[in-house]
Specification:
By secondary structure, the chain is an alpha/beta fold. The protein contains four helices and five strands; from the N terminus they run ααβαββαββ. About 4% of the residues have low confidence.
Length: 129
């Protein structure tokens, strides 16, 4: 019984996340070309298989994760948040059993893809194409 309680309370393992086969759509709202490809590659390195959707018509500052699955246990949400550095305040849970995707990640101008421990560049120093 104790093992059952522990399994329920512990976060999902990497194996469980891959077994979940979460359907993840990436939308680029950063205003920077190909940043959706960078985010998709980053998720692919972690074992996910994201799908790149059409770019957003307007830019947004923050990267946001929409969780259409509504699941707590066995969900990839926490892993997505860690990988993409998205705080709880930028996660929107909208359970939708009819959605084509389990998650939608909208990449904003704040998205910083570097995996090394360096500070992100100041936004006033960025050059947009």
């Amino acid at each position: 019984m104790m093992q059952l309680v522990e399994r329920f309370l512990l976060p999902p393992t990497a194996n469980q996340l891959i077994q979940e086969h979460a359907r993840i759509e990436i939308i680029n709202a950063s205003g920077s070309a190909d940043l959706d490809d960078v985010a998709a590659d980053r998720l692919s390195w972690e074992g996910f298989t994201p799908i790149i959707g059409p770019a957003a018509a307007s830019t947004r500052e923050r990267t946001v994760i929409y969780d259409f699955s509504g699941q707590q246990k066995g969900s990839s949400r926490a892993a997505l948040q860690t990988i993409l550095r998205v705080p709880d305040s930028d996660v929107i849970i909208e359970p939708d059993g009819t959605s084509e995707y389990d998650f939608r990640v909208v990449i904003g101008t704040s998205y910083y893809a570097c995996t090394y421990p360096v500070r992100p560049p100041r936004s006033d120093k960025l050059i947009n194409p």
